[in-house]
Design a protein that fits this description.
TIM Barrel; globular; binds 2-phosphoglycolic acid; alpha/beta; 263 residues
């Protein structure tokens, strides 16, 4: 069975002190839960990934340490390693800081910063080169859904992100399907809808890569108003390897409940 994945996307919600406190609280709560000692995360086949803002990565990295069984992820990176790119962050530096994952193409960046499919593609390439695991976010807006082009949008985002990228045996990617219109709304889509879309994503991945590579190296997860109450209905789906959690990852108790619901 594939490892399940829970990703906490803290977005720009927490400053240095809050990020430190929340990571400490999550660790403490996980340690005190019955049957949930951190060393068991490995046995339980669960990867927990915390994604704070850039300025708080070092501190959260220090708190998690490599042994805690919880991993660090960044919320974005640039497509070059270094150079005249004011304000950008190198994927190599993120790797050196202790990041194992990086979120790319989140809908908030596509909308607010006009990130295009091509930019996401370049970032995916750079992240893989830096030995980071890209978490590629794809999803349709409500308008695209109403126009009946949802499947096309998803396939286009997916193909653009990955065309020409070969995955070697060690490289992994995570595809996060996040319907934009339910993000932060408190109302997730139904598990059936997620299953339908994940099957489409899986098929496209099988068109792109050998089946064995897809099974071992590619995970498909769901994001959009995931909570402790609905998480199980998503991770129980055959095609869903985990969840990307925004709002519900900002409170230690709720987030740990989500983790526990999965194992
Ligand atoms: P949400 O955010 O869980 O608050 O809907 C998910 C995301 O944007 O990644």
């Amino acid at each position: 069975m594939k490892r399940k994945i829970i990703i906490a996307n803290w977005k720009m919600n927490l400053g240095f002190k809050e990020s430190k406190t929340l990571s400490e609280k999550i660790l403490k709560k996980l340690k005190t839960r019955p049957n949930f000692f951190l060393r068991n995360l490995k046995i339980k086949k669960l990867d927990i990934i915390l994604c704070p803002s850039f300025t708080n990565l070092s501190e959260v990295s220090r708190i998690l340490k490599s042994k805690s069984g919880i991993f660090l992820g960044a919320q974005d990176c640039f497509w070059e390693d270094h150079g005249e790119f004011t304000g950008e962050i190198s994927p190599v530096w993120l790797k050196n800081l202790g990041c194992r994952y990086v979120i790319l193409g989140h809908s908030e960046r596509r909308k607010n910063l006009k990130e295009t499919n091509n930019m996401v593609h370049q970032k995916v390439k750079a992240a893989l080169k830096a030995e980071l695991i890209p978490i590629i976010c794809i999803g349709e807006t409500l308008e695209e859904r109403r126009r009946g082009i949802k499947d096309y949008v998803i396939l286009d985002q997916l193909s653009s992100a990955l065309t020409g990228i070969d995955l070697d045996l060690k490289q992994k990617i995570i595809i996060a399907y996040e319907p934009v219109w339910v993000i932060g709304s408190g109302r997730a889509i139904t598990p059936n809808e997620a299953e339908y879309m994940n099957k489409i994503i899986l098929q496209r991945m099988i068109d792109f890569y050998p089946l064995e590579r897809v099974k071992k190296n590619i995970s498909i997860i769901y994001g959009g108003s995931v909570s402790a109450d609905n998480v199980k209905s998503f991770v129980d789906l055959e095609t869903t390897d985990g969840v990307l959690v925004g709002g519900s990852s900002l409170k230690a108790a709720e987030f740990v409940k989500i983790c526990q619901a999965i194992i």
